[in-house]
Write a structure and sequence with these properties.
single chain, alpha/beta, about 240 residues, 7 helices, Rossmann fold, 8-stranded mixed sheet, 2 domains
Amino acid sequence: MSIGGQIGTLARKVNRHFGLIQWLSGDPIPPAGGFDLDGEKLIDWAWICTNLPRGRRKALEIGPGKSPIIPAMLSLGYEVTAIDASVNASKIICGFEFIYGDFQSAPIESKFDVIILCSVVEHIGLPGRYNSREDPDGDLKAMQKVRSLLATDGQVFLTIPVGMDVVHKPWHRVYGERRLPKLLHGFDVIQSRYLIKQHWGPWQETSREKALQLPIDIARYCLGEMALQEKHDGGLA
């Protein structure tokens, strides 16, 4: 390995343990040793892009950041709207409507055939990241607003951390047997996949039961990827 490569490897290890990049950018410092979640967003993005329904659709992505899901939807001929309170995705690609602001307070009145929440809802209501305002039930309220915006027979694509129930402020919530049913209230899960990560290794598929029983650990969690439709009888998912 070249000297430059060795320096780069050392810098990444130092940052993982001490969170220097986050500290310099004003973000909260991660736990000692860093998060064992490498590749999480790539896997979630790929699953959603693969399962997007074909044909023209009207779609909303909430908190996309620099999401590749937006160009994927545009390539399928979707009419796309995105809303984000921290990253302006319209500076990366054009051809869609971008709303810079808080999803909870935004006056959105359209109905959408596809709504995307990729690694987003677990942050809503936890202050300290992504310009989110404090609300202990912000995630549950967001999902009910999503339900109100969903067109008949529309689909919600949701990816979240799963494991034993816990809130790691200001980072994220992890959804387990207690809070997951509340999050999915009013929805049917029509498709799902769960993944667990080997310690500092690759991700692999696992069962829902094993994923939701992952012990509490601030450095890691399992992934839950779900496609949802409205439950017309209004019961618990």
